[in-house]
Design goal:
Elements (H helix, E strand, L loop, with lengths): L1 E5 L4 H9 L4 E5 L9 H11 L3 E4 L6 H6 L1 H22 L2 E7 L22 H16 L4 E5 L2 E2 L6 H11 L2 E5 L3 E2 L2 E2 H13 L4 E4 L6 E2 H11 L5 E5 L19 H4 L8 H15 L1
Parallel strand pairs: 1-2, 1-3, 3-4, 4-5, 5-10, 6-9, 7-12
Antiparallel strand pairs: 8-11
Bound molecules: NADP nicotinamide-adenine-dinucleotide phosphate.
Length: about 280
Amino acid sequence: MRVTIIGGTGLLGKALTREWTGDEVTSLGSRDVDIRSDSQVEDVVCRHRPEWIVLAAAYTDVDGCETNRDLAFDVNFRGAVRVARAAASQGTRLLFLSTDYVFDGRKTTPYETNDPLAPQSVYGESKARAEIGIREVLPDACILRTSWVFGVGGKCFPETILKLAASRKELEVVADQRGCPTYTIDLARTIVKLCRKEARGTVHATNHGECTWFDFARAIVGEGGLSAVVNPTTSDKFVRPAKRPAYSVLSSSSLTNYGLSLPTWQDALRRYLRKLRESS
Ligand SMILES: NC(=O)c1ccc[n+]([C@@H]2O[C@H](COP(=O)([O-])OP(=O)(O)OC[C@H]3O[C@@H](n4cnc5c(N)ncnc54)[C@H](OP(=O)(O)O)[C@@H]3O)[C@@H](O)[C@H]2O)c1
């Protein structure tokens, strides 16, 4: 199988590039292809003629998107639809990475793939618009929503917590946002399997289990062997430009339909910390 990863230099893209063996994989960063450019996107698709494109490229600075709305929509919405159009013209399958932030967070039970989109932030809105736009031009695309992604080789929540916990005695972390942490390596392996299974439609993929950011931080500090005390706080005391959903647990039933599941987030965290130690 010939595969092109767009966004191959990002946190997930790097793991995906490393994990995807046994196929002919081309991994591209924004220097190789800017998805805001018609000619660059068309050129890449015509040149590589992939059977699958995995689109992991996005402007992912959730707070930055609030002040850079045009950039958010140029990359995350128009750029993504541009890639879908190019894929459609070449008969190429597409797996597009989307996010739990397309939901409003008002539910108290896991979000199913067909729950209504109601993003609360510019980032979420740009990704929700992309999902709709991609469906229109490429009905058999696979839209893969994930959440709270962490891994070695890029900025992520565990890395921030480890740094803070190494220099402070106490940390405050919000305990009123609940979701599912997802390890890049587990997600990458799932993406490979989904493409090999010719997945289509919307699929949710996260590590198994759910927690608050506070729970996650406490586990990171504990498993990381640090002594900092993690205290719970609330989102109203930790105001950020973009509103985050209070609850964004994604149901795993769509993934179960493909006979797939991911390990627990606690297991993933231990493997991440081991890998981090090995790489330092
Ligand atoms: N991180 C999370 O918690 C999370 C949660 C849910 C969903 N997602 C989704 O998962 C995907 C991967 O996220 P990530 O955390 O791995 O992202 P990331 O680390 O921020 O990487 C973003 C990638 O997009 C590329 N990119 C940015 N602008 C581009 C443009 N105009 N043209 C082409 N490429 C461009 C970057 O290329 P360069 O580095 O070469 O500039 C980089 O490879 C995204 O679609 C994101 O929305 C992420």
